[in-house]
Amino acid sequence: MQRGFFITLEGGEGAGKSTHLAFVQKWLQQTGRKVVVTREPGGTELGERIRELLLHARDIDISSESELLLMFAARAEHLNKFIKPALEKGKTVLCDRFTDATYAYQGGGRGVPRERIALLETWVQGDLRPDLTLLLDVPVEVGLERAGNRSAPDRFEREDGEFFQRVRKAYLDAAAREPERIRVVDAGQKLEQVEQQIAKILQEVIHARK
Ligand code: T5A
Questions:
Q1: How far is the CA of 157 from the centre of ligand 1 (A)?
Q2: pTM: predicted TM-score of the whole model, two decimal places
Q3: What are the domain boundaries of the chain?
């Protein structure tokens, strides 16, 4: 059986990942695929507990290194218990954030050296990488305003604008390095226009994979 298709959605705060995840899921299901949706950090019982710590711990100071290791601890669990088994069954896995977020937030945002992240990536993932990454790109101010309108800020959302400029730059640099896999979507446009861009990319990529 052919391994399932592994798709990730990435972008800064409030870029519209959760909003467009449902659109992507529906689009893929209409092509007859079995699609499972998940997220990082999270996706397993342990992963969700780590997520809670990383996003909402107010009373402990978490160093950049510990943050990085916790992200990969959650990821190791997620890969072994959820992502790999689903891919092996031929399912399409649609994941809200994955390792590109680590390069963007812990690398770009916090300044952890890329090589250190790459080491963990290889250790935890082997050669498994997403087949397609939709990078929803939006100016930092727009994303933060959208996210802020919706809920109280989490541990990351309390960072300043410069942190998020570095995150955005790290994402765009990654897309420039890997244009085949990481496809940039202008997420500053109206919802329908963002959906049209996503549908066009999915059409192209699915067609090429046949
Ligand atoms: N993290 C994660 C790391 O630091 N390292 C890692 O390795 C990983 C995996 C996770 C946090 O963890 C960090 C990054 C994150 O800070 P999260 O909840 O997954 O947190 O990510 P957030 O970015 O915080 O998620 P948000 O829900 O805030 O953003 P979304 O999902 O991108 O945005 P969404 O879809 O909820 O949209 C926000 C609002 O904007 C509106 C929506 O309706 C919604 O109200 N909207 C639009 N409005 C107008 N026009 C459009 N085109 C719109 N698109 C969305």
A1: 10
A2: 0.96
A3: 6-209
